[in-house]
């Protein structure tokens, strides 16, 4: 068997635990908090929670949905940045993550809120300045 055949791919699914082995679940608290990806994800979690009225206003389930949506958005930002830098990405993975992020944000109640805008005539009326008479 070639030497690289036993190496794990970074994106591969984890192996199932062997019989009798303990399974250790990881959380965000177990991740190295110094990485850019971790800091971005935590920042998004904070911003989304604030958009929803603060973490104290959210149920545990909503907090989990916020974490999942932020993690998905972080992965999307990474893939988008890689593509913009000229690196190849899998368009199917990107599209799947976009749809997952959209559904996640809809599940926690985030929606587009249109802002009020002036009509063109009101905008132009506000911009017109009458010159002061010369004395």
Show the helix and strand layout.
Blueprint: H1 36-51, H2 60-84, H3 91-107, H4 120-127
What level of helicity do the residues show? 40-55%
The SS-based structural class is mainly alpha
- The helix/strand series, from N terminus to C terminus, equals HHHH
Radius of gyration: 24 Å
Distance between the termini: 96 Å
Describe the main β-sheet briefly: none
Report on the architecture of this protein:
- The protein is mainly α and 135 residues long.
- The chain has a domain at 28-111.
- The chain is built from four helices and no strands.
- Helix 1 crosses helix 2 (60-84) and helix 2 runs antiparallel to helix 3.
- The longest helix is centred in the middle third of the chain and has 25 residues, at 60-84.
- The chain is elongated, with a radius of gyration of 24 Å.
- The termini are far apart.
- The relative contact order is 0.08.
Key terms for this structure?
mainly alpha; 135 residues
In short:
With 135 residues, the chain is mostly helical.
